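2024-03-11 09:14:02 INFO receiving multi-entity request
2024-03-11 09:14:02 INFO entity count = two
2024-03-11 09:14:03 INFO echoing inputs for audit
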Amino acid sequence: MELEKGIMYDKIKFLVAGDSSLVMEFGNSISPIINSKIRNVLNLIEASDIVGILELIPTYRSIQVIYNPLLIEYDSLIDKLTEIGNSINEDSANSDRIVEIPTLYGGEYGPDIEFVAEHNGITVEEVIRIHSSTDYLLYMLGFTPGFGYLGGMSEKIAAPRLQVPRTKIPAGSTGVAGTQTGIYPIDSPGGWQLIGRTPIKLYDPLADPPVLLNAGDYIRFTPISDESEYLKILEAVNNKDYKVNIILNGEVRTHE
Amino acid sequence: MNSIKILKGGLFTTIQDKGRWNYQRFGMSVAGAMDHFAMRIANMLVDNDEYSAVLETTFLGPEIEFCCDEIIAITGANMSPKINGEAIQMWTSILVEEGDKLSFSGAINGVRTYISFSRGLDVPEIMGSKSTFVRGNLGGLEGRKLTNGDEIPLGKRELSSKGSYLRDKDTPIYTKDNNIRVVLGPQDDHFTDEALETFLNSSFVITSEADRMGYRLDGPKIAHKTGADIISDGIVFGSIQVPGHGSPILMMADRATTGGYTKIATVITPDLSTLAQMGPGSSITFEKTSVYDSHKIYKEYQNKFEDIKKSIKENKFEFDKNLLFNLNMFGKGFSVTVREIE
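2024-03-11 09:21:47 INFO inference complete, emitting structure
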């Protein structure tokens, strides 16, 4: 359990990041417990009446706080954030959202799935079963708009990055790199092994909110049976008729 | 329709405002003007909100035809602005007429020039901002830099009969080499004492890899205690990353929201405008300041803005009382504007 718990600092560390930003650091590892504390603290800061906080960026193990130094004194800000940080104990419950991402595995939608299967000495069907039977914690978003850093993938489907990255990967592609998995939110170059693709939009600059997923969500890949079903969902998405299935307070599945 | 027509796009001209704030948690870069000082003054001079959308142009300005009368102001780098071939002043309100052509040459000093428009650039706001984020293909005009033949609609507004100007004493003088103030951190403890000494007592040159996203610097190597990588965390405008090779990277307007390299220090807000006007070949020395002192400097900087704002409001002149003289002296042509001050 030591590994799962991660190393949470006894006292929250405050790191200076210029004249209008600071880092509130909770620990020094990637762990669901630290990440869960960050989400709770984030919610409380947002609900608080601290004047002068402009924006919060949650990451794996910290919150970047952007503030206006004309509106709040540095020491007073630290005091208020410390108070909020200490008011939450590690066991505070999170309202977990499980977001279902329908995914068509293999074929032209996931051209590297055979490689991933071979690399691990298992069948394509097993890759799909393993990949879609775990719920992945979205630790943070970054890199490009809507790109989520997911944790919790089974090592049984791990695979090295492509030696020569592709110049264009279609939006919605799901890939594997090392023991990481993720979805490309926009067309972009990349070197991950592609195993499938989702017809739903993770990022739509004109939508509100523009990004479907939040840090703290769990992602559940649900296999699409065939191309015709994929195209049916895609049409519904394009007509704005598709409702993404979000399970509230559901039971999160971890890999065996 | 009130609009401007881009006859030539210039080297890199984009629409920018304050930037796209409050979406960084989704991985969305802020973008926005590189030089907020020049943008804010440009907007004050056309009596707009300080953070209204303006054109930002780098190294070589565009050529623009006006399809209506308009009041503009040009601030930032000096790219020898001209209307119909006649030199015009910077850091002042300028009344242009329908059919007038605004042109520029290469930057004489500074790197980025700003053009503000009294009626405002009428492009859609995306996530609360009109800023162009080229890498994300988003905002501004179709998410890209301006090109020959583009037409940008202007908003609706009655033009004022009066203009104003920035006092000479407030007009920045751009120099090639500058002292840039920083607050150490957030990861200064990842560096050896010797490395921190080197960082604060050396001169770093901006390499040719310098754009709206960031500037790579060349200079003595800065050594980490153990390693250059951290668990990815947030990045702000002015963060100074030091990857494993030991050469710092200054993160600018189009920076990614998060990154996994140690950040030795962060540039203070008032000095970001100085940096924005520095290009490849310019050199930087970093000077340490405490977070408390940085807040004093920040307050002085804001007070200076308030003072400038007041002076711009007070120093009004009537456009139709401007007299323009073209003089030939010492074998050179000079354009002199004489205005009656109220």
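2024-03-11 09:21:48 INFO post-check: DSSP finds six helices and 14 strands in chain A.
2024-03-11 09:21:48 INFO post-check: Chain A has two domains: 2-86, 97-248.
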